Structures are given as structure tokens and as C-alpha cells.
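Batch manifest, entry 17 of 40.
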Amino acid sequence: MSPISSDSVGTATVLQAEFERLAAEWKQETEHLSSVVAIAKHRAYQEIIGMGNEAIPFILRDLEESSSQWFWALRSIAGESPVRPEDRGDVDAMTAAWLDWGRRKLYI
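Output type: C-alpha cells
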């Protein structure tokens, strides 16, 4: 097993900073919206989705702390959803399902 290089640590730090900047922008500009579609179509949210798998740990940590509407992004990036059909719309159950998924997949 090779040690973690300073380059990979630096890249992770840059990615986290970019995620945090985009997430803050997204939250501020969509906090008044009730439409999940409008929230998910926001430019900053779409840029986070564009970060791909590397964004998943950041999204899951934020989901754990804030219960923000990250479900669309997670499903888009992961290509799957651990949420049971009967739990759709139940934010607490959806959050728990995604956090359990993240632990199983070693994202958190």
C-alpha cells in the first residue's frame, strides 16, 4: 500500500473547498424555493454533480449535518438509490438510507 501523497491531499483540499463554495452558493440562492426540481437545476448544484464520485463524501457529510436536498445529486452521481419506494418523500428515512449506503460503500 502506498502512502497518501501530498499531491492527493492537496487535490482533496481543493475539491473540498470548491464543494463548500458551491454548496454555500446553492443553499443561499435556493433556500426560498419549494420546488425540488428548481433546487436541483441550480447551476452550483449541477456543478457539484459534475464533480462526480469525488463529491460523494462531501455531500454525505453535508447531508448528515444539514439534511439538505442532496438526494437528486447522490442518485445522479451514484447511478443508484438505496431509498425504498415507500420511503420516498420521507426526508429522515431518505437521509438514513443514503448515510447507510455511504458507510457500506466506504464514502464515510
